[in-house]
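Protein modeling request. Please complete all fields; requests missing the sequence field cannot be processed.
Requester role: graduate student
Desired output: 3D structure, C-alpha cell encoding
Chains: 1
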Amino acid sequence: MPSRAADTDRIQLAQLLGDAAAQGQLPMSEYEDRLAKAYAAQTYDELDGLRADLPGSSVCPHRGGDCKPAPSTLLLAILSSFERRGRWNVPKRLTTFSLWGGGVIDLRYADFTATDVEINAYSIMGGQTILLPPEVNVDIQGHGVMGGFDQHVEGRGTPGAPTVRVRGFSLWGGVGIKRKPRKTRR
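Delivered output (186 residues):
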C-alpha cells in the first residue's frame, strides 16, 4: 500500500514546480496542470511522478514527518530591524512588531509548515514589508491610522495553494504586502 503524502510534501513540490516555471523549464500551462495535480495528490508515488523530470528533484524529500518549526513565532524591531529571507520554515502563526524600526518577511523561498498561515503585523512609527510568492492565496484585514496598511495585492493565488492571512494595524507607520515572483537562478 502506497504511503500517504502530507500537506508539507505537497507544498514542497509546489515550490519546486514554481522554481522550474520561473526558470523556463516548464511551460505555464504544464506548470498549472502539475500544480493542481500536486495539491490533489494523496500518495508519494503521485508526487514523485510530477517531479521526476525536474532538475533538483533527484534527492528524495523527507517523508512522513513534520517540518522543523520556525526559529521564532515572534519578530521584534524596536529601534532596530528584523528580516526573514531565503529558505526558512514559516510557522502556522507569526506575530511581527516594529516600533521605530522595520522588517522584511520574504515568503517566496520559505517552506510552509501549514496550508493556512496567519501573520499578525503591527507597526508604530515603523514599517514592514511582506513579500508573497505568486501562487499563495492571501486574505488581508488590517488598518492604518495616520499610516498605511495595504489592503489589496495584485494577482491571484492558485486554488489549493496555501493561504496567508495578514491581520494587524499600523500607527504612523506602514505594513506593505506585495506579491513578487521568485528570482531565476543562474
